[in-house]
Amino acid sequence: MCGIISALSFDDGVSESLLSALERLEYRGYDSAGIAYIDGNSRLHRIRTVGRIKTLREAVERQSVKANVGIGHTRWATHGKVTELNAHPHSADGVAIVHNGIIENYQELRKRLVAAGYSFESETDSEVIAKLIAFNMKSGASFESAFKQAISKFVGTFAIAAIYEAEPDVLIGAKRGSPMAVGLSKDGRSCFIASDAVALSSLADEIAYLEEEDIVVARKGDTLRYEICNASGETVVREVVPNKVSLDDVTKNGYETFMLKEIFEEPRVARNTYDKFDYDVDLSKFPGVSIIACGTSYYAGLLAKYWLEDIAGIHVDVEIASEFRYRNPVLFKNSLYVFISQSGETIDTLCAMRLVKAAGIKTLALVNVDASSIAREADYVIKTVAGVEVGVASTKAFVAQTLSMLLLAKRKADFDIDVVESAMNSVLNKSHEFAKTAEKLKSGRSLFYVGRGTSYPISLEGALKIKELSYVSAEGYPSGEIKHGPIAIVDDCVHTVAIAPFDKHFEKTVSNTQEILARNGKVILLTTDAARGSLHGFDANENVDCIFLPDCDALYQPFPLMTAIHLLAYHTAKAKGYDVDKPRNLAKSVTVE
Ligand code: AGP
């Protein structure tokens, strides 16, 4: 997902604010970046680079930029290849803009602008924004009016920030469908408009989140202030809240990567989730529960299904959001609809929730970003307390999501969080074992992750993690399904991670892996200490590697297992030399369909 940052200041060092914010926005996933600024002679400049922010920083520092106003952008390519010309900011006649979202009617607007004599340098949808503002000003509109006229023509989603060289004391932003926040520096000398609280951390201690169709205009006169107006043009006040993202959240604190830091935070996240969980939803009053989500959050929902049905005795459906919203679903007015999203910005999940709300049904969101769109639009919200998750691959947030759902089902009565925390910490102490196993996994042409019962959703999560970090084909299956087709691909290049704690499914899962071994497949058995006496020589097979985790009550067993599969994915990607914090092609939250 693209990220935007913009600044208007009495001080001439905004380029550093822009660059440091872009560095904090790297977690959203991107492939190019750029800034635009207005110099002391009211001239607009742009600096854009492909690749990492480091490259952009070097280019900016070579130009010794001094500026009081500027905008910056990290681009996750949607329309147009990864090139400098497609990188933001885009400009026209002294106007420059940065944009997160999609202008769906950009082709039609582009045609009209070409007919009016404008030429385009990029393949992007976003470039029409700058050109249309410039076109409107040619007809005599002021910068602010031209901006407002332009966004009224857009179909689609946007978080836009814009500057104009002839008005260097003005910064304008607008929000529809993509997140945006505004804040002032502590000394009141700078104003920032950005995609999220992470970008604004260390810039603004207090921030206000824009609502749909809000426009914010910051002006520098004797003082520096901003004004927000709504879709009807009325001035509105949006609640100013503390920026909860601390610098600690967005620094690695001695870990090599954010992902490793966040995996090692998992036991503490479990403890925090337990300590702070105080939601009491009486599930007995609902005939059923529908859980709707994407990716890892969907697997959290699948895991929740086992607990809610087994503990709370309530029927649960779990659905992929992008399918749910387009299949004309039969909705049950009295059911509980739960939307799980770490970022709270996933457009598929947000639109699925809007579909349910439109039917007059109450919605419950489980989100990790307090002021996210899903959090703000849901009728009820459970805010998970994983803290800021910078790694693109979700890890600690998955722990917070799943434990929250378990507590929803079981509540805290006779729940022993000490066991959960201790078991997860024991797994972290075995990180080196996963690194050793990763050396074998990294050569695998394709991987299976298999499990039964609650180990099945863990298998799906394990497969996704290693897929998105190691770029290898990996599939999660119920271990009983392998013989119904998938076993056809098993040979000596196929590795299977069998998730088999010593529980009621253990014997069957091990038996399923025997079928794989019989066809020269390789097996990594992720099991628990109590299984040692029941392996009957299984671990002596040269194609078998065992990792023994601590035993705990079957109810809690998924938690050390999730830490284990996260470590396995992490080490495999590291063994392959990949960037685990910013895996290729991925964004931290997907705000496009
Ligand atoms: C998780 O590691 C992936 N990056 C991805 O599947 C993610 O879980 C999915 O895009 C949903 O994101 P959300 O939880 O922010 O809605």
Q: What are its keywords?
A:
593 residues, 18 helices, Rossmann fold, alpha/beta, 3 domains, Glutamine Phosphoribosylpyrophosphate, subunit 1, domain 1, 24% strand
Brief rundown of the structure:
With 593 residues, the chain is of the alpha/beta class. An eight-stranded antiparallel sheet has the order 3-2-4-1-10-9-11-15.
Layout of secondary structure:
Layout: E1 3-9, H1 14-25, E2 32-38, E3 44-50, H2 53-62, E4 69-75, E5 90-92, E6 95-103, H3 106-115, H4 127-138, H5 143-152, E7 156-164, E8 170-176, E9 181-184, E10 190-194, H6 197-200, E11 206-209, E12 215-220, E13 224-229, E14 235-236, E15 240-242, H7 258-264, H8 266-276, E16 288-293, H9 295-311, E17 315-320, H10 321-324, E18 336-341, H11 347-358, E19 363-367, H12 373-377, E20 380-383, H13 396-410, H14 417-428, H15 431-441, E21 446-451, H16 455-470, E22 473-478, E23 494-499, H17 506-517, E24 522-528, E25 544-549, H18 558-575
Parallel strand pairs: 16-17, 16-18, 18-19, 19-20, 21-22, 21-23, 23-24, 24-25
Antiparallel strand pairs: 1-4, 1-10, 2-3, 2-4, 5-6, 6-7, 7-8, 8-12, 9-10, 9-11, 11-15, 12-13, 13-14
How would you describe this protein?
The protein has 18 helices and 25 strands. By secondary structure, the chain is of the alpha/beta class. The strands form 4 sheets. An 8-stranded antiparallel beta sheet has the order 3-2-4-1-10-9-11-15. It has a 7-stranded antiparallel beta sheet with strand order 5-6-7-8-12-13-14. It has a 5-stranded parallel beta sheet with strand order 17-16-18-19-20, with helices on both faces. Helix 4 crosses helix 5 (143-152). It is elongated and about 85 Å long. The model has no long low-confidence stretch (mean pLDDT 94). 2-deoxy-2-amino glucitol-6-phosphate (AGP) is lined by residues 294-297, 341-343, 346, 349, 392-394, 468, 586, 589-590.
